[in-house]
Amino acid sequence: MTIVTICVGSSCHIHGAEEITGRLEEAIRVRGLEDEIIPVGGFCFGKCSRSGVTIQVDDDVFTGIIPETFDAFFNENILPRAEVKG
Ligand code: FES
């Protein structure tokens, strides 16, 4: 199981956290990965970025993600973990 925590702090909210949450839920749904990838909301990681949203995938924190690049981020950093873990 992979836990994906999207920061919903004020800076990340401004940069599209809500839209990214929707994209994550959709990406999980269309692939039937509801039991493998668990999306949750989190408060400020202290890594606010002017360029985008902060997302934690298991223990790894990524910054600067925007809705337009989220699909590529999902394919690169989230999907492989779900597939590896089965
Ligand atoms: S508000 Fe998201 S890391 Fe600070």
CATH 2nd-level architecture: 3-Layer(aba) Sandwich
Strand content: 25-35%
Largest sheet: 4 strands, mixed
Number of helices: 3
Q: What is the CATH H-level superfamily?
A: Glutaredoxin
User: What is the name of the CATH topology?
Assistant: Glutaredoxin
Assembly context of the chains = single chain
Report the principal-axis shape: globular
Rg over alpha carbons: 12 Å
CATH class: Alpha Beta
Approximately how much helix is present in the residues?
Answer: 40-55%
- Calculate the terminal CA-CA distance, rounded to whole Å: 8 Å
Query: From N to C, what is the helix and strand string?
Result: EHHEEEH
Low-confidence stretches: none
- Please tally the β strands and state the result: 4
In spatial order, strands of the major sheet run 2-1-3-4
Structural class: alpha+beta
Identify every distinct bound molecule in the structure, by name, code or SMILES: FE2/S2 (inorganic) cluster
Supply the number of structural domains.
Answer: 1
Task: Determine the mean pLDDT.
Answer: 95
